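Got a spare moment? Tell me how you read both lines of this record:
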Amino acid sequence: MSKPRVLILGGCGFVGRNLVEYLVSNSCCSKIRVADKVPPQIAWLNDSNKAAFEQVEFKSANLVNAGNVEKVFNDDDGAFDFVFNLAAETKYGQTDEVYRERVLQITKNVAAEAGKRKVKRFIEMSTAQVYNSDKGVSSEQSKVSPWTAIAKFKLMAEEELSKIEGLNYVVVRPAIIYGVGDRLGLTPRLIIGAVYKQLTEVMKLLWTKDLRMNTVHVSDVCQALWHLRDAGPSGEIYNLADKGDSSQGLVSEVVSSVFGIKHDYFGSVMSNMAKLNMSSVVEDSNEKHMVPWADACQKDGIENTPLSPFLDQELLYNKHLHIDGSKIESTGFTYSVPTLNADKLKEVVDDYVKLRLFPASLVP
């Protein structure tokens, strides 16, 4: 039986590069094509990413343009069996119009093309931020109430999939994804931890240790995406979250252990007072972190890095990301990284230090 042909949209991003590496290292496919508007040469790939990308075909494409989408799907050697849509704007704090174009429109374009070509399965990457942000744990059947702008348009994108005739699809809603190559998940908190090591101060955080910040390692996300190519019926949604029920307390403990610092919380009363003037509080906080980070980069001769301690205001409210990721296990999937731990976060830092994107002077 011949191996499948795979198209990865947004394949140079955080999850995309890890999926490419997973599929190449496990010899899963007869062909892999990656389409992205950012070429691999300027995507800050590490050595193992680069080696994997040598085994795939790359197409430069802005998928907002429907004409580009058709070209990406065209291949003289035949049709693609599976399409993974990881293409979307991932930066927080953008306008609705940016997300409408770079989240919703992209999904509508690529899913329509996938439906037209009758691909065996289309796998859409969404987010667990679509759920209600109260303390309760959310299953796939729980109430949706998106609490970030990205999530609002991700949910709209999900809803478009069911309207496409003949499209065989599944949707994944991951918790906070972390691992080598992460920039926007837990990495800003790692950088903030490094900054407090430099400042020799206690890292103080809004709210309390009980704020749920569920996590999932990128290796499990990649394995889940590949698993779902032929697991579960069309139209299903699957949450992805590890077994650790990660909270701000656990994340802060692990970050503190990596950098040998202490941490504390402002608590609910002080944080609710701060909420009354949140934009000013967030601006002051980011400024406090950005200056020492820039100083450390300069000291270590790092002239350019995509990494930043900046945290968008959307992520600093008392919003719980609390989901049940067990449904996918009923299809035969097993999580390989059951809990967030210091070793896995240290891997992220060490990789960026090796790439000269993270100051080695900040690492114990």
Summary: The longest helix spans residues 278-299. DSSP finds eleven helices and eleven strands in the chain.
